[in-house]
Write the structure tokens for this entry.
Amino acid sequence: MRAGESSKRGFPSRNMVDWKNDLARAVDQEDEAVLRQAALAGVAKTIRFLSSRLSSADDRTKWKVVRGLGVVVSERDAVSIDRARELLRRFFWSLKDESGTVPFGVPEAIGEVLAVRTELQVEFLSILCSLAYHPELVQTGRIERGVFWALGRLGQASALCSPEAVKAVTWAAQQHPDPESRRIAAWALRQFDQP
């Protein structure tokens, strides 16, 4: 195949429009092989594409993007430890008021990245845990539910890292005024017993 031609699975595409369409299709179909190929063909633009779609109003799309981001970041030949670390830093920054962003989907992405790149948990898991209980960091609504999900995604690692987070998730599972938050917190709590 000559440089710039589409491969059988669509990467690298001839132009950016085709490339984005191919990547969107791979996300929608949850085609891990094509996502890995996209990461190897152009990791920066692949991560940008996925990150820009985390805040999708459609929950199904958001979850496909979160899982897709996990697939891409787990591709160690494409995503170095430093690139994964920088991605997490950007995600945590977007959760701050000063960032000016609406970080829907970001906590879930953080949880997924930390699940597939466990070596980064030492640096970032305590920060994620603090989002569940620290008064200046606590989130609300969809973002809070994302934090609960991310802590559950990491299971026992979250519980071992932060008793305060476990206490906050336990409270949410039992007493949170929002039923969806209670449901996700209860799920996270069950995951804390899983290795």
In short: Residues 26 and 160 are 35 Å apart (CA to CA). The chain is about 65% helix and 0% strand. The radius of gyration is 17 Å.
